[in-house]
Each structure stands twice: as C-alpha cells, then as structure tokens.
C-alpha cells in the first residue's frame, strides 16, 4: 500500500462489560490493543452508558479520553421524553462542545423505537447538525432502520453487527437510502466486503471492530486480506469516517 493506512475503529467501547470478561476496559488497555492490531484511533462509547445510565456514562467517557488523542468520544443517547438527557438540540450542542463526533443508540436495550415519534426529535437534531448515529442491528429491525432513514434523509445512520445472511435484506435498503452506511464489526458474510464495494462503493462501509467484546483481529484481517484495492481499503479503514465525524480532534500518526 503506497500510502500509510490509518485505521479508525468506529465501534469500540471502554469500561467493564456486565456479561463478558473483557478486562479492565481502561483507556490504557484500549491503547495497548490498538497498538497490537495496528489501529491508529478509535471512537469509544462507555459501557456505563450503553448498559446502565447514559448520562453518567457519557460524562465518564469524556473524562477518560480527555488525555488520549487517539480516542474519540461517542455518546449513548436516548429520546428526550423522560428527561434523562437534555433536549435533542441542546444535547447535540453539548456533544459538539465536548468533542463528541458520533452518537450511538440502543433501542432494544433501552426500550424505545428507533423510528418512533419519541425518537424523531433526536434524529432530526442529529441530521441537522451532521452528527452520525450508530446502531447495532440486533438492537432494532430493518423496517425501523429504513423508516428512520426515510423520515430523516439527511441523517447519516451507521448499522453495525450485521452478521451474515443479510445481504438480500441489505441491498434494497442501501439502494433506496444513500445515507445508510455499514460498519465492518461482525459484517461476516463470505466476500461481503467485496460484493458491497462492487455494488455500492467503498464509501458505504466504515471500519469497526466491536472491541473489546469482539476480537479486533476479525475485522482487521477481513479488511486487510480482502480483494479490495488500496484506495477502497483506505476509504473503509478510516477516510470516509473521518470526513463524517461531526467534530474535529487532533489526531496522531502511528508508526
């Protein structure tokens, strides 16, 4: 590869996990893993936010990445109905002020409908301010993903943990909704990357690992040993996502 590949993991998390033994979940442990697998940067949520209390976990992720320029914060967000987080517009404003470049939602775990009226203000504010939203496929269903994308056509919606045997469901969705992207974390169909790039272009895929629950080597190997050309690997590996992150932050080169 003529230009240095700087992988950006868009689907990582800090903190201990309530159901999996993932170690300390500390920023130092994350940096060590990034070094081991040749990943330059990661966008990280916190398990306190994803599995317990978003407000507390979001504050915690900001504190834990403050001195780690290779880690970018991701906030776990909710519909504004119960008042657990600020209203949608204020939430986006606070996120951007804190250097947050990505939201993630967990509709199944947190008990709301991705495409429902309660979530609409959040999606609208994110779309208006260019804040991408990541959702794991097991947390919702394809109908809700399509309905949310149709109702908010300016929203960048990233779907992760797609698994395998989903390409027939995905192809029509990707054709109709140009701002739906797929994350490579557990995108595990045979030659799925090659098929999707050939059909839709490398700009529809972003690199993610699902670490620490998933071994990062899975996503790294699948991308680096793919049959894609160097330009496509770089686009998926980080170039596209860096262009989408709602806020900029100093990045560092990794030898």
UniProtKB/TrEMBL annotation:
GO terms for molecular function: hydrolase activity. SUPFAM superfamilies: Metallo-dependent hydrolases. It comes from the Bacteria. Residues 37-240 form the Amidohydrolase-related domain. Keywords: Hydrolase. Pfam families: Amidohydro_2. This is Amidohydrolase family protein. It comes from Phytoactinopolyspora halotolerans.
């Amino acid at each position: 590869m003529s230009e240095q590949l700087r992988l950006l993991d868009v689907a990582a998390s800090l903190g201990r996990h309530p159901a999996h033994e993932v170690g300390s979940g500390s920023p130092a442990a994350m940096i060590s893993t990034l070094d081991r697998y040749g990943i330059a940067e990661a966008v990280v949520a916190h398990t306190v936010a994803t599995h317990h209390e978003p407000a507390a976990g979001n504050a915690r992720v900001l504190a834990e990445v403050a001195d780690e320029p290779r880690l970018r914060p991701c906030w776990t967000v909710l519909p504004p109905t119960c008042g657990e987080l600020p209203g949608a517009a204020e939430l986006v404003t606070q996120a951007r002020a804190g250097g947050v470049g990505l939201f993630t939602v967990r509709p199944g775990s947190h008990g709301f409908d991705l495409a429902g009226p309660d979530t609409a203000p959040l999606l609208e504010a994110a779309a208006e301010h260019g804040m991408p939203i990541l959702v794991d496929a097991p947390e919702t269903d394809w109908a809700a993903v399509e309905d949310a994308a149709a109702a908010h056509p300016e929203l960048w919606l990233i779907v992760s943990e797609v698994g395998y045997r989903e390409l027939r469901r995905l192809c029509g969705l990707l054709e109709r909704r140009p701002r739906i992207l797929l994350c490579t974390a557990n995108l595990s169909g045979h030659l799925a990357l090659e098929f999707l790039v050939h059909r839709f272009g490398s700009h529809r895929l972003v690199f993610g690992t699902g670490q620490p629950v998933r071994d990062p080597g899975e996503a790294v190997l699948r991308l680096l040993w793919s049959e894609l050309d160097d330009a496509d690997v770089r686009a998926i590996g980080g170039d596209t996502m860096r262009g989408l992150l709602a806020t900029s932050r100093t990045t560092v080169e990794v030898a």
